[in-house]
């Protein structure tokens, strides 16, 4: 009996031990599962961000290449300013010419005659003006005085005759017609005397100031006509406006040169001692501010791809083209001496992403997407946490980077994506590390 009781007690203790161990095992597994779920939830809650290192401008600078076409620095279509038959052609396409060199000439005879006529008219007008300023000569005064005396004698005679007829007509001794004739003769004699006296006064006093001014104005007009005649004669010779090469000839010997209704084109000339290269740049690159007049960049030509030549930015068009919203830039350079570069050839202009005119090579730069007003988010790579850092930023360069004057050091990691909703000290998940 006692043995049975001991056996039952041992069974009960064994069962209790089994139940205890099973309970402890189940509780441990549940705790482990809860901790794993919490860790997974915390990992899922960490925000994903992209980060990049703070770099120097020289480490991220890219070279942008733009295709372009070569043009002559100067090119012109030449015409005569006066018309006439072409007498002489002095050059042909391909000839090198110097400024002022004679190229063509038309018949100058008509223009020589016009010049001589203008000279004659001017000389006559100047002589008349000189006479007006000096007044009448003594012999002219003597003639005028004689004329006055003759006019006075005629007047006295006519006056006496008129008085006689007036007395006789009252006594009806002469007819009315005789009286009228004597009266008209008297009146005409008086007018002639007055005119002779005025001419004498004018001769003694010289020309009036108004007459002299009118004569001087006439001379100025004749001088202008003479200069125009000289210009026309000089324009019968066509000369080179600058050093260059003749490109085309559009007229034959003895052909008539016309200037109306439009000027006839006779020669083409261009200057290729210097070359222009035109390239077209998209608006994003124009907005970077790196294109300033005087910027020097390397240029290569397809006919000589292994040589670079320095070119200078010469013109900046601020009016966009009709296609593609691009802007034309014109670079100039001295023509290479070791090879012949001609208009129409293809060139490539290489432009640094940052120019020395806008950014020093040791400047710190960060992507524009990393800058939030006046601060950035710095990432602690060891603990995967973030902290806000105030910076002093400079201009936007290359369209997508800010210069940083202070607040950052080279090599620090900044958030470029996912920074909008970060908090100080927050744990993040680094998605992309640049």
The biggest beta sheet is recorded as: 6 strands, antiparallel, barrel
> Low-confidence stretches at least 5 residues in length (pLDDT < 50)?
34-44
Fraction of residues in helix: 25-40%
What is the strand arrangement across the widest sheet?
A: 3-10-13-12-11-14
- β-strand number: 21
- The value of Rg in angstroms is 54 Å
Distance between the terminal alpha carbons, to the nearest Å? 84 Å
As a percent range, the share of strand residues is 25-35%
Mean pLDDT, rounded to whole units?
Answer: 84
Number of helices: 7
Structural class: alpha+beta
Shape by Cα distribution: elongated
What sequence of helices (H) and strands (E) makes up the elements?
A: HEEHEEEEHHHHEEEEHEEEEEEEEEEE
Q: What would you say this structure looks like, in words?
A:
With 434 residues, this protein is of the alpha+beta class. The chain has seven helices and 21 strands. The strands form five sheets. A six-stranded antiparallel β-barrel has the order 3-10-13-12-11-14. It has a four-stranded antiparallel beta sheet with strand order 2-15-19-18. A four-stranded antiparallel beta sheet has the order 7-6-4-9, with no helix packed on it. A hairpin with a 2-residue loop joins strand 11 (296-301) and strand 12. Residues 34-44 have low confidence and may be disordered.
Layout of secondary structure:
Layout: H1 2-45, E1 47-53, E2 55-56, H2 57-60, E3 63-79, E4 84-89, E5 96-97, E6 102-106, H3 109-134, H4 138-170, H5 176-205, H6 209-234, E7 237-239, E8 244-249, E9 256-257, E10 265-282, H7 283-286, E11 296-301, E12 304-316, E13 326-334, E14 346-352, E15 364-367, E16 375-380, E17 385-390, E18 392-397, E19 401-406, E20 413-417, E21 428-433
Parallel strand pairs: 1-21
Antiparallel strand pairs: 1-20, 2-15, 3-10, 3-14, 4-6, 4-9, 5-8, 6-7, 8-10, 10-13, 11-12, 11-14, 12-13, 15-19, 16-17, 18-19
Helix pairs in contact: 3-6, 4-5
